[in-house]
Structure formats: structure tokens, C-alpha cells
Amino acid sequence: MVSEPLKSERTAAFVGLGAMGAPMASHWALRGYLKAVWNRTPERAQAFAQEHHVIALQHLGELPTTAKILALCVSKDEDVLMVIETLLEGLTSEHLVIDFSTVSPDTAKLAAKMVRRCGADFLDAPVTGGVEGASHGTLAIMVGGRLGSLEKIRPLLETIAAKIIHMGDVGMGQSAKAVNQVLCAGINEAVTEALAFGHHLGLDMEKVIEAMSGGAAGNWFLDKRGKSMLEGRFTPGFKLGLHLKDLEIVAAMAQDLGITLPLTETTREHYVQLLEQGHGDDDISALYRLKRPN
Ligand code: NAP
């Protein structure tokens, strides 16, 4: 574990410079925390490094000798485990690994077990707030793991988040994020269905969005994605294929609990249809494709 309270010195490295990771890492670079980055597609890391004056590492295994705080924001469970496995050899009690990706609680627990065997510590720290939250540094972070480790890196997290909530032991950050993803599924169904209904009624939908915003039916998704979905623009944002991955995690968790989540199941089926039609890399608001009037 990092032994001293964190100072603003180049002590962190970031893996995964996608839609979320790149803006998050940018905040760390701007505040002087970031030393190095690694990305599967090296051109992305090189471009980022050039812009932010940090090191683009060629090999993942070089990360532990370069920085003490190692952050990840990659797509899926298997990607997180692949990264962690590659880091293991260089990890010591000086290191803290923090995973911002959305994965299953079981993956978080397995990652923590592997990392802690080396004497280092691990936090699962999935985020919510979208690419807008990442860019503005206003994410909410749901953290699982030792409170002491969280407190040591709190200043670093405060550069990217408006809310940092310690949920409990490792895995509980991801459990909270699963709840968030169930909410997002239901909101997506409600917003896309309501906008298609309004369109059928012949309403001026921009005025509808303006009227609803801030009222009892107003919500982040309607505000941020309502207008673009009406215009048929589905640029991510949050890729539909990634939300489907989250809903598959949720389905497995619900099965373990012996409960059903009918609304979430409907969204999952809708996403599978859209994925089969080739829309997996669209924003999740592409659900409107299934509902809009022809
Ligand atoms: P993204 O734009 O697709 O970026 C994914 C990143 O993961 C890229 O850097 C990608 O590298 C890397 N990656 C993918 N597979 C990999 C592998 N096998 N090995 C190493 N690196 C790999 O996704 P994102 O939207 O940033 O999402 C990242 C995570 O945050 C996901 O778990 C997602 O569910 C979660 N999340 C997303 C949002 C959102 O609104 N977008 C919000 C909250 C949480 P390449 O550049 O080589 O493709």
C-alpha cells in the first residue's frame, strides 16, 4: 500500500484510455499526479502522452516500476483480469491498484485476492456520470475495499469525482454499480418509449423535453441524450455492448439471489436484438431505434 498520504507528485499510471479513461487520466495529468499511461491500441497512448507530457509505456509489465498507484478503466471482466495478471510480477506492498471498470463483484474479489497476495492493495471503484461526468470531473465513484486505502488516494479521486462513496468490502462498489445499471436500463426503456409516444402524438418533442426537464419525470438521460436520439444520432457516450455486458452481470447476480428483474430482462433482450443488427458500438440511446416511428 502507498505508505504516505498522497501528494500531488507524478505517482500514478493509467491503463485504458477509452471514452471514460482518457478524460479521467487527463484530470490526473493536469493536476500533476499522472506519470505514465498504457493502452491496448498504442497509438492512443502515444497521442495522450504527447498531449499531456507523460510517458506512454510499451509494455504493461513496466507499470509497477513506474508508478505506485495503478488505475484501470477497461471494458470487461476478462480485460481487467488480464491486466492484473500482467502486473502481478512487479507488485509490492507499495502499490495500490484501483479499478474504475464496471465488472462483476466476483471479478473484483478475484482481482483483490491476486493483488493482495503480492502485498499490494486493491479497490473496486466503478463510476457513474457518463463521459460528461468524466470530462467535467463530476463522476460519482462507488468504492469497495479498505477504507484506509481509499483515504490515501482520496485527493486523486477528488480530481475526477463530485461524490466518492465507500460502499464496504471489495466487490461492494461493483454491487452498487450493478444497481445503477438496473436503474439505467429502466430509464432507457422509459425515455425511449415516452419519446416515441410523444412523436406519434405529433408533439414538438424539443418542447416536450424542455417541459419535462426538471419536473418529476426529468432525468440525466433525457437531458443528455433526448435531443440526439430524436435526431437519430447515437454516438457514444456509453456503448450499448458495454451496457449489455453489465446487464449480463446483473442477470447472473439475480439468478444467484433467486430473484427476477423483468424490466432489466426486457432491456437485455432489446440490446441483444440491436447487437445482432450491428449496433453494439452505438450509444445506449440507440434503443430508440426499436421504438421510434418509421
Ligand atoms: P471504451 O471507450 O470502449 O474504452 C475501452 C478501453 O478498454 C479502451 O482503452 C480499450 O483499449 C480498453 N480495452 C478493451 N479491451 C481490452 C483488452 N482486452 N485489454 C486491454 N485493454 C482493453 O469504453 P468506456 O466507455 O471508456 O468504458 C470503460 C469502462 O467503464 C467499461 O467497463 C464501462 O462499462 C465503464 N463505464 C462506461 C461509462 C460510459 O458512459 N462510457 C460510464 C461508466 C462506466 P483500445 O483503445 O485498444 O480499444
Cα distance spanning the termini: 57 Å
Number of separate helices: 12
* Helix-strand pattern: EHEHEHEHEHEEHEHEHHHHH
- Number of domains in the coordinates? 2
Instruction: Give the CA-based shape.
Output: globular
The level of helicity is 40-55%
Strand order of the largest sheet: 3-2-1-4-5-6
Describe the oligomeric state of these chains in a short phrase: single chain
Radius of gyration: 20 Å
Structure write-up:
The chain has 294 residues and is of the alpha/beta class. It has 2 domains: 12-169, 3-Layer(aba) Sandwich (Rossmann fold), CATH 3.40.50.720; 176-290, N-(1-d-carboxylethyl)-l-norvaline Dehydrogenase, domain 2 (Orthogonal Bundle). Helix content is 50%, strand content 13%. It has 12 helices and 9 strands. It has helices at 21-30, 42-52, 63-66, 77-87, 105-117, 130-136, 147-157, 172-200, 205-212, 220-230, 240-257, 262-276; strands at residues 12-15, 34-38, 55-56, 69-72, 96-99, 121-124, 127-128, 139-144, 161-168. It has a 6-stranded parallel beta sheet with strand order 3-2-1-4-5-6, with helices on both faces. A 3-stranded mixed beta sheet has the order 7-8-9. Strand 4 (69-72), helix 4 (77-87) and strand 5 (96-99) form a beta-alpha-beta unit. The radius of gyration is 20 Å and the shape is globular. The mean pLDDT is 96. The protein binds NADP nicotinamide-adenine-dinucleotide phosphate. NADP nicotinamide-adenine-dinucleotide phosphate is lined by residues 16-21, 39-41, 44, 73-75, 79, 82, 101-102, 127-128, 130-131, 237-239, 242. NADP nicotinamide-adenine-dinucleotide phosphate binds next to helix 4, strand 7 and helix 6.
